[in-house]
Amino acid sequence: METVVQTMPELPQEILMDIFALLEIPDLVRAGSVCSSWNNAYTRIRNIGQKKQAQTPCLLYTSESAGENVACLYSLAEKRAYKLTLPEPSIHRRYLIGSSHGWVITVDERSEMHLVNPITSEQIALPPVITIEQVEPIYDNTGAICKYNYSMDTKMSVTRRPLTLALGKLRYYFHHKAHIFYDASVGSYIVVFIHNPFGQLVFARLGDEKWTRLSSSYTNFQDCIYQDGVLYAVTAFGEIAFDLSGPVVGAKIIMDRVSDFYGRERVYIVQAPWGDMLQVWRPGAWINEEVDGHRHEATFEHKMKWMKYI
Ligand SMILES: *[C@@H]1O[C@H](CO)[C@@H](O)[C@H](O)[C@H]1NC(C)=O
Predict the structure, then answer these.
(1) Distance from chain centroid for Cα 308
(2) Which of 139, 164, 165, 169 gets mutated to test ligand 1 (max ligand atoms within 8 A of its CB)?
(3) β-pairing verdict for 145-150 and 135-139
(4) Considering the entire predicted model, what is its pTM?
(5) Structural domain boundaries of the chain?
(6) Ligand 1 atom 1: the closest Cα is on which residue?
(7) Which CATH entry fits the domain spanning 11-55: 3.40.109, 3.40.50, 1.20.1280, 2.60.40?
(8) pLDDT tens sequence across 154-172
């Protein structure tokens, strides 16, 4: 059969990119496989790091029947699910403790963290958990880590005996939640991780070998947001700004405690469409659901009774 190859006039890359930036992710991925010029525009959009256009949310889930390494992504825009095969370790057995910019932050059965992009299957290991001072490795005779000692000491509390935990058990106690932020000044990402005991804050840039503690004087961090080199982090006691743009991290309390409620409420920071930062407070109530006899810090749920904007 004779094939006639016609040379089609090409749209300039910038115009292709403007058009592609308006697409929902599934359409964007399809557009990227049309031809090399469209693929180039698609790759460049992805490398910008942040798609400007807000996406219709997708629901990410795993199931036993789909398989150990398969994540299912339900697209609300298309009302259909995609099955995505992801790299080891098993996505079905990981905890998901945060997501943003297309990345999901996971904790595996060794209590180690990865960033994984379910669309592209890219995966990036985050620094080992033993680089945080509360976690001490215990080695077996082959030199492999077989358990962790989890210390609940902080500068503010008295010394207790550490808990000796199996590799997969650490995440029940230690991991609370994580955030990923895009740092436009270096074109890369910052991961901020809130861990126990007492909601402490560490961060890492991609490629770092260890986690860096942000503050040992403040604890009970609940949420944070990053803007122009400054991390705004909130505790039940107030709000602190960490300047991450220089070689030395500066910390400043920018808002004192604003509520008389104490204890179970959760505090979030959100950015309004008009740019203001808001705190959102909501009361927490444990849902008494125990898996394997444990309340999972990483998978707890809170019932919503009221919300308060400040
Ligand atoms: C782990 O903790 C136990 C006490 O709970 C202690 O006996 C042991 O020496 C610790 N091991 C390491 C490697 O820190």
Answers:
(1) 25
(2) 164
(3) antiparallel
(4) 0.83
(5) 11-55, 58-92, 94-213
(6) 149
(7) 1.20.1280
(8) 655 666 788 999 999 999 9
